[in-house]
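User: Okay, second chain of the day. Same drill as before: sequence in, structure tokens out.
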Amino acid sequence: MRARMKTPKKNERRYAVGYGKPPVHSRFQKGRSGNPKGRPKGSKGFAAIVRRELEALVEVRQNGQVKKITKREVIIKQLVNRAAEGKLREIELLLLRMDLLQRDWREPGRAAGDLDPEALEKARILIRGIL
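Assistant: Same drill. Structure tokens below.
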């Protein structure tokens, strides 16, 4: 005896609909972007905004004279000055940054984010010797 297939009614679905299976009519269509307008022109990403702000000029008084320098220079000057005061965290940051810069100058092919474990340990020993 053969099993007869039930014919679907007018509003009945022929496929499973549920979690991760939306109805066919509401799925993304092939060849059409999910974000057709895209990012608006002129809008900046996070990195571009940070770069622009770091390059902004500020007035700084040094030795009685007013100079205009970038915010990036101000940050570096403050880091170096705090390290010179003996603040441990700033010393460690400065030594690590110096090590990364020197490595980049010597080995241009190597990624700047790779921390050398030996250099890190040398920096920690140096800091312990200062304190």
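The radius of gyration is 30 Å.

User: Thanks, on to the next one.
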